[in-house]
Amino acid sequence: MSTATARMQRANRGNHFRAYRLHGADPLLLDPFMGIDHAWMSAPTFPPHPHAGFSAVTYLFLDSETGIANRDSLGNNTLIEPGGLHWTAAGRGLIHEENPAVPGSTTHLLQIFVNLPRDRQNAAPFALSLAPQDVPVVQRPGVRVRVPLGSFDGVRSPLTPPTEVTLLDITLEAGAELALPVAAGQRAFFMPIFGNAELNGERFGLDNLAAPILPAATDATTHKLAAKAGGAKVAVFIGEPLRQPVLSNGPMAFASQESLIAATTAYRRGEMGRL
Questions:
Q1: Taking Cα atoms as reference points, which of 41, 31, 37 lies closest to residue 10?
Q2: Quick one: fold of 4-268?
Q3: Taking Cα atoms as reference points, which of 192, 169, 172, 191 lies closest to residue 82?
Q4: Mapping DSSP to helix (H, G, I), strand (E, B) and coil, where does residue 266 land?
Q5: 267-275 — which CB contacts under 8 Å span 24+ positions?
Q6: How many CA atoms lie within 13 Å of 189's alpha carbon, on the beta-carbon side?
Q7: pLDDT by residue (tens digit) across 36-76?
Q8: pLDDT of residue 57
């Protein structure tokens, strides 16, 4: 089975924000995902900003020292606790802000941008939250899998997002292995969080900033994930490609230029609300 390799670019915003950014040369390479930041944040970094046309998802790892204070122009004011997840489906547009709940304490997180199906991009925005205690967990010898989105090995996240995707937070002890099935028509990719691992015998990890991407397969497949010395943590992203155009101006992305222009105009007129 062939794999592609996405680049992970390190981004720094002073001492309070560090991130590894997963992206590909082809903007549709991660489809239905649009990009992922693996980040540490300890001070206000994301002041009020607009989103439209896609979903902004925040997942906090359990080792975060504090939570994320999340609020939006819909009136939601949510504390994302360590181990929890918050999904903002921006739809036709809203204003959004996220900051550490306790300034100076470090949050360890994934910021995940997921495309919306074209027929839902102009729908009313909404938000979903998942508390850490409600995230299903699968235990295997030397392996712990948290399932904040989608399903794995017979367990399913209680969230029903507008784009059906799977996120697995996998911790492997040294030498542990895990069989990972991927359904027909779906694409999977793997982001190293710490340590080094092997996927189907091919090594990847933070030492070479590589992230394997599997092409969408015609048939269901099963892949072997294994940890090297010292163990590893890997985030796995699985979804069926939407195969639609992506036209973006940064904080907004739509399948049509008309929708992108309309959302940009609405934001400038103040029609996405305020915090």
A1: 37
A2: Jelly Rolls (2.60.120)
A3: 169
A4: helix
A5: 267/50, 267/52, 267/93, 271/93, 272/50, 272/52, 272/73, 272/93, 272/94, 272/95, 273/73, 273/74, 273/94, 273/95, 274/48, 274/73, 274/95, 275/48, 275/71, 275/72, 275/73, 275/95, 275/97
A6: 25
A7: 999 999 988 888 999 999 999 999 999 999 999 999 999 99
A8: 98
